[in-house]
């Protein structure tokens, strides 16, 4: 804001501009550059879409789906990987990390596999 005012010929400093903005209830909304996290232009094989939007299942353990999201916490942004059983719509595995790396998804999947193995043994 100070630089914009100087460009139109006003001789002001950062402190004065800040004080005047506060007195008039004006605040600056800062925009951040979008951080690209996925690069679809690569030479690697693309996994087939086996579900083809069929997000229902007749039995447990027939179809699982996973997703990764980020969540704001007191410690800052954390990534959450979740595995769902599409029959029960329950979370059967999850993992949290401060970095979105391969092991995040692997840990969530391992938890789901362990949970379902234990659950199946319990119900038999």
UniProtKB/TrEMBL annotation:
InterPro entries: HTH-like_dom (IPR025948), Integrase_cat-core (IPR001584), RNaseH-like_sf (IPR012337), RNaseH_sf (IPR036397), Transposase_IS3/IS150/IS904 (IPR050900)
One Gene Ontology molecular-function label: nucleic acid binding
Residue span, Integrase catalytic domain: 59-118
HTH-like domain residues: 1-34
Gene Ontology biological process terms in this record: DNA integration
Pfam families reported in the protein's UniProt record: HTH_21, rve
Superkingdom in the source lineage: Bacteria
PANTHER family reported in the protein's UniProt record: TRANSPOSASE INSF FOR INSERTION SEQUENCE IS3B-RELATED, TRANSPOSASE INSO FOR INSERTION SEQUENCE ELEMENT IS911B-RELATED
Protein name: Integrase-like protein
The organism of origin for this protein: Yoonia maritima
């Amino acid at each position: 804001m100070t630089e914009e005012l100087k460009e139109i010929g006003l001789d002001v400093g950062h402190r004065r501009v800040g004080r005047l903005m506060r007195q008039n209830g004006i605040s600056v909304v800062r925009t951040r550059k979008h951080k690209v996290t996925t690069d679809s232009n690569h030479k690697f094989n693309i996994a087939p879409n086996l579900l083809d939007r069929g997000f229902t299942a007749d039995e447990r353990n027939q179809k699982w789906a996973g997703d990764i999201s980020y969540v704001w916490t007191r410690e800052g942004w954390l990534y959450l990987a979740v595995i769902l059983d599409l029959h029960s719509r329950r979370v059967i595995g999850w993992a949290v990390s401060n970095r979105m790396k391969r092991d995040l998804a692997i840990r969530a999947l391992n938890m789901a596999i362990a949970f379902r193995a234990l659950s199946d043994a319990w119900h038999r």
